[in-house]
Hints:
Helices cover 47% and strands 17% of the residues.
Amino acid sequence: MNNIPGQIEAKYLLKILDTISSGINICDADGTIIWVNLAGCKILNKSREELIGRNVYLLNKEGAFTPCVIEMTAQARRPVTAVQEITGRHKVTVSGEVIMDEQDNPVYFVAHGDDISNWMEHVSTIQLEDLRPVLSRYLLELNKMSTRFILFNEEQPLVGQSKVHSLLVDILERVASVASTVLITGETGVGKSLVAKRIHDLSERRNQPFLHLNCAAIPDSLLESELFGYHKGAFTGANSTGKSGLVKLAEKGTLFLDEISELPLHLQPKLLQLLQDKTYMPLGGSHIEKADVRIIVATNREIEDMVKEGKFRADLYYRLHILPVEIPPLRERKEDIFPLLHFYLQKYNQMHGRTRTLSTQTIDALQRYQWPGNVRELENTVERLVIMAKEEEISIHDLPKRFLFAHAEKEALDFLKNGNTLSEVLEDVEKRIIEQAFKEHKSTRKTAKVLGITQTSLIRRLGKYHIRNEMNR
């Protein structure tokens, strides 16, 4: 290649890269170094001739540096940043980037970094207290940057690309910057607990505890002691040394109360006291204790209706409703379905040692489905398909029946739009259903039983639609 966009010749581009003070290391897809700039040579204390052609994985094993950021980037298939130690002498902040081809396969890896040892020596003479607010601000901004595309840590994804998702991202950033109570609402399975954790991770409390309590999962008789703790002798069977509650354990961090609508009426005034005064009384205690904890709550119910019915205190509801965050159901943000399918397909392929892909028809059927169980249902469906699919490519015939009916409905409507009669549409739908059932159950007896028709009637239809012949080809 002689030129690159902008009419800069490649040989001059490399000279330009040599003027940059940050080290730059470019590797091929196998981790072999194909070029490194002068700053990179200086950081690694090796000449260009010693580095080009060497494999970074082997250099890492030989102890030239640790960890190997290129290897970390290759495994994650996304940008990775880490502090790298060079032969035990100095430290470098290194960022790894992956360059993909049109088929989304890695072709190059780029690592770029700066020696921070001198900076660390210099900064030790500075008043660190003066730096903390600035560093804290930049850390918050870095956390927000990762939210713009895919919100996730390795175990808890919050994936999306719709306008609704982008709006949710903006809201999370704003509520994370303050300490006020947050009320998260949404249907079962939309990811309320993930949103709560993300708010915590974006906040200044991110390095403190994040504790999660499902109010519906604890018996009413134990819920108060779980929340506020108890002193010894507080009740029969109590631990002789007492017990710290979740409010105490979450000190300076975040306490997430899921299904807050299930909180018993007799405990609601105590939660209100905690929210208003930041104080609480453990069971069997003799004095009030202070708490520095942020409260995030969630529910899939309409608490306002519960207030009207006298099942939830109005003053507590209004106190919880300071920062409401509503997560729309998946059927209202269809653009998020495809990235979610892609994410979970990769996750469960890796988890179960598979290399499954989704056929175009399958993706189409999954995107049309209404997902009443939201993201949780989608995740469970993808895992099932990865495990149970008969071929490497997951076909529409691998889908549960509820998806097939949605697919048949779409095809029937398309058939009508193409000028076919109702009779032709019904025959086409009948043929497809019988074909799928016969393929799945193999025998006419089992297929007829599943379809709720006689075996004779089924055999007549198999002949009418030439299904046996088509499937034997």
